[in-house]
Design goal:
Blueprint: H1 3-27, H2 37-63, E1 68-73, E2 76-82, H3 91-106, E3 110-112, E4 116-121, H4 131-141, E5 144-153, E6 156-161, H5 164-176, E7 186-194, E8 198-205, E9 211-212, H6 214-221, E10 224-232, H7 239-245, H8 250-257, E11 272-280, E12 284-296, E13 300-305, E14 313-317, E15 322-333, E16 336-337, E17 342-343, E18 348-351, E19 356-361
Parallel strand pairs: 6-9, 13-19
Antiparallel strand pairs: 1-2, 1-4, 3-5, 5-6, 5-8, 7-12, 10-11, 12-15, 14-19, 15-16, 15-17, 15-18
């Protein structure tokens, strides 16, 4: 082989050898640098600091979180309630609880101008109270007003009742006293009203005196009152007779009319005398459709016997009365009939009368 070829071959081998070395150098991994004691200590300190910071952040988040609500009445704290999970009471709910309990206690609707507010706070367990305690404090410190019902008679205040329902019940009991229950009367329909103008007005008040329950209102509204009026003397009247007829003592009648009249005064028709009599505070006028059983008188037939004397009398057939059912319209005031009965429709005959036959002398 000529020298030039050998040189070329040697050059190619050399280049392949160098290329192989470079590839092995690229594939070889660098050796890791060994950690010293100081480096390990620094890493441990860094990790500990990071962990401590995380713990502190978590503790701050936990202990700074609100765990209670404070209840205020007009800006004054009434108590602190512990939060239970995500549940909490609103100011309106607490206010309604207090108002409902007070309404139940007094027996009527209550209102107030006080304002209840709540605020989320962080508090210790020793500060916590119960909901009942807070509601009790609110009721003791709130100024409640009562929604009452006033009964007016002819525009004049008669009585204040705890609520409208009690007032209506008391007035209905006054009406019920004059419902008639005769044994022979079948009540088909009945309607009643007061003679006086009676109305119920609701109003708000802070006063609790002179407020009645329904039963007390009934006793008052169903009672009697003294009314002063003027009587015109008629013929044959005397002071004693006038006093007696109107349930008065003669001494009181004279005291009301002194000095115009005394025990020795002779009264004349047309004189006007002041009287004071007891009358119902409320008069009830009833309009009733009633059914009455009325008697149909038996007819009488006479048979004259000429040969018998005029004093002769003998019943041949006893006969019987008949019965009929009559529907009538009746108007009463305080149970006393004020108008004559008006027959409504045709009577229904229940039993026909039987004629009575009597023999009489014709002499």
């Amino acid at each position: 082989m000529p020298n030039n070829e050998r040189e070329l071959e040697r050059g190619r081998r050399e280049r392949r050898r160098n290329a192989g070395k470079q590839n092995r150098t690229r594939q070889r991994k660098p050796k890791s640098i060994p950690l010293t004691y100081g480096m390990k200590k620094a890493i441990a300190v860094a990790v500990g600091v990071v962990f401590l910071v995380v713990v502190i952040v978590i503790l701050i988040l936990v202990f700074s979180r609100d765990n209670a609500i404070a209840i205020y009445l007009n800006g004054t704290r009434m108590g602190v309630l512990r939060l239970s999970g995500n549940e909490t009471l609103t100011a309106n709910e607490i206010f309604n609880i207090a108002r409902a309990q007070e309404s139940s206690r007094v027996g009527t609707t209550v209102v107030t101008d006080d304002v209840v507010t709540v605020d989320r706070v962080r508090s210790g367990r020793n500060d916590f109270v119960t909901t009942d305690f807070v509601v009790g404090e609110l009721r003791r410190n709130m100024v409640f007003k009562l929604e009452t019902a006033a009964v007016y008679i002819d525009g004049q205040l008669a009585v204040i009742v705890i609520n409208q329902h009690e007032a209506e019940a008391g007035l209905q009991r006054v009406k019920d006293r004059f419902h008639q229950t005769d044994e022979l009367i079948d009540i088909r329909e009945e309607y009643s009203r007061f003679v006086e103008n009676v109305e119920i007005r609701t109003f708000i008040t802070e006063e609790t005196d002179d407020i009645y329950c329904g039963n007390q209102a009934y006793l008052l509204l169903g009672g009697d009152v003294e009314r002063e009026w003027v009587y015109t003397v008629r013929a044959d009247d005397t002071l004693g007779a006038i006093a007696n007829d109107h349930g008065m003592r003669l001494e009181r009648l004279i005291s009301l009319n002194y000095p115009r009249f005394n025990v020795n005064t002779t009264i004349r028709p047309g004189d006007r005398i002041t009287l004071v009599t007891e009358e119902p505070l409320l008069s009830v006028k009833t309009f009733e459709f009633r059914e009455f059983i009325e008697i149909i008188p038996r007819p009488v037939e006479y048979v004259f016997i000429p040969e018998q004397p005029a004093t002769f009398r003998r019943v041949i057939n006893q006969g019987t009365d008949g019965e009929k059912r009559v529907t009538a319209f009746v108007v009463r005031i305080n149970g006393f009939v004020q108008e004559e009965r008006e027959i409504i429709g045709e009577p229904v005959v229940l039993r026909q009368p039987v004629t009575e036959i009597i023999e009489r002398g014709g002499g």
